[in-house]
Amino acid sequence: MKAAFAHRMQRLSNATGFDVFIPVSFNETEAQQLCRQINQTRLQLTQNTAT
Predict the structure, then answer these.
(1) What is the DSSP letter of 17?
(2) Dihedral class, residue 48 (left if φ above 0, else alpha if ψ from -120 to 50, else beta)
(3) What is the pLDDT along the chain (51 residues), one digit of tens a residue?
């Protein structure tokens, strides 16, 4: 699981030039919300509909 996450974050960094850091203090709900936001932004960018 950690390796898959690391691979996705590396691909995101290569595509955007940004690194994502997730605080250790995040609880499960906060981590899920952040992942949802990242995914929504990624989809917007790939569909070229970012606002």
Answers:
(1) S
(2) left
(3) 678 878 888 988 888 888 878 788 888 899 889 889 988 887 888 887 655
C-alpha span between 50 and 43 (Å, rounded): 9
Rounded CA gap, 10 and 7, in Å? Answer: 5
Nearest to 12 by CA among 33, 41, 32: 41
What pTM was estimated for this model as a whole? 0.54
Residue 23 CA to residue 30 CA, distance in Å, equals 10
